[in-house]
Amino acid sequence: SYKFNSKNQFYLFAGLGNKEPVRDDYLNSTPSTRPDAESMIDYEAGYKFTGTKLTATVNGYYMDYQNQLILTGNINDVGEYIRENVKDSYRAGVEIEFGYSISKKLALNSNLTLSENKIKVYNEFTYDYDIDGLRMNSYNNTTISFSPSVISSAELTYSPFKTLRLSTNIKYVGQQFLDNTSNENSILESYFLSNLSGSFSPSIKGLKGIEFKFMLNNIFGEKYSSNGYTFSDYSSNQRTEYNYYYPQAGANWMAGVVVRFSLIL
Question: In whole angstroms, what is the distance from residue 120 CA to residue 64 CA?
Fold first, then answer.
């Protein structure tokens, strides 16, 4: 990294990571389909600006994988997701973070990630009733499942005085595929969420600290699914996709109290 001055910094990064399959990967496979460890080289470059009121970061990355363990879109007989290795794949994109102090009491923070998440060659095995066996379909440069190309959020925070904090947050998650074939018939639709939260921390004699919290989630009642699974088959030379979704809660709220005190034994 290199600092031009107190406000401007540029950095480069390269790192190698390796990861063994987890226990479920072994339990959900057979000896002939047992997964291998995955390996990844991560290249990143970025710029940071730190001003009196404004902070900003732009980071570009390229993650080059070998034998990446990815979700297939299938589940096992007890509902757990199944992962498999793909030989060559990558995740590349740019991340932008922005913060601005509008005043001493009001601040804005936001972020945006734009990415491309691809498998160079993906072989899909689907049951074909016409041949009473598996049919293989090969795909080139297909999108990795559950990998949205756009994610963004923004939060506005207001603190009228030291003990009170109020925030509103909006979040957008782009379209995702349920499997690794980039099939437009098996997708999770994009969704947009709005939340409110707050905390109040009064000073009470005899307590080290007390904090009252509340959260109002999905305040506009967005109907969305953040996860799901899919599988396909062939019959009479026709492909059928079976998509299953996990719907999320509509408008909901949570509240809590945190109490801090000293205990002398």
Answer: 11
Tell me whether strands 106-128 and 133-143 are parallel, antiparallel or unpaired.
Answer: antiparallel
Sequence-distant (≥ 6) Cβ neighbours of residue 133 within 8 angstroms: 127
CA 200 to chain centre: 30
pLDDT of residue 27: 83
Q: What tokens does 244 get? A: 């299953």
Question: What gap in Å lies between CA 101 and CA 77, rounded to an integer?
Answer: 52
Question: Average pLDDT, whole number, for the chain?
Answer: 92
* Rounded Cα distance, 179 and 147, in Å: 10
The model's pTM is 0.87
d(CA 43, CA 99): 25
Specify the 3-state DSSP secondary structure of 33: helix
Q: Check if the beta carbon of residue 157 is closer than 8 Å to that of residue 164.
A: no
pLDDT per residue over 7-49, tens digit each?
999 999 999 999 999 888 888 777 777 889 999 999 999 999 9
* CA distance linking residue 99 with residue 105, whole number of Å: 14
CB atoms within 10 A of CB 134: 11
State both tokens at 214. 């509340």
Residue 111 token pair: 């972020």
Q: Which of 42, 155, 171 is nearest to 99 (CA)?
A: 155
Q: Which amino acid is at 10?
A: F
The per-residue pLDDT for range 154-163, each reduced to its tens digit, is: 999 999 998 9
Distance CA 40, CA 18 (A): 6
